[in-house]
Write a structure and sequence with these properties.
- About 0% of the residues lie in helices and about 50% in strands.
- Strands 2, 4, 5, 6, 9, 10 and 11 form a seven-stranded mixed beta sheet that branches. A four-stranded antiparallel beta sheet has the order 1-3-8-7, with no helix packed on it.
């Protein structure tokens, strides 16, 4: 079955960096567009970035976050730099075709 497993979250100070990973299985990863979403406490889940035929970002992370993939490893990445407290959220990876979410990984930006 289609499965996504995120990792790499944690506690980081403002201005710091984290790299999230999403390990995919159960489908042909290399041929599918993939996305990162996040959900802060009390807020709706919001789109962060996508990678497919092109790459796109939500405005609030443009220039700070980088989405990438390694098709040989069936893994999606999100490099997050210059982190801000408002980036605090649970981060999820998502496959649009199979409409499947991972379990999420917590990112907390705080001093």
């Amino acid at each position: 079955q289609v499965q996504l497993v995120e990792s790499g979250g944690g506690l980081v100070q403002p201005g710091g960096s984290l790299k999230l990973s999403c390990s995919a299985s159960g489908f042909t990863f290399s041929s599918q567009s993939m996305s990162w979403y996040r959900q802060a406490p009390g807020q709706e889940r919001e789109w962060v970035a996508s990678i497919g035929l092109s790459i796109s970002y939500t405005a609030s992370v443009q220039g700070r976050f980088t989405i990438a993939r390694d098709n040989a490893k069936n893994t999606l990445y999100l490099q997050m730099n210059s982190l801000k407290p408002e980036d605090t959220a649970v981060y999820y990876c998502y496959t649009h075709v199979y409409k499947t979410w991972g379990q999420g990984t917590q990112v907390t930006v705080s001093s």
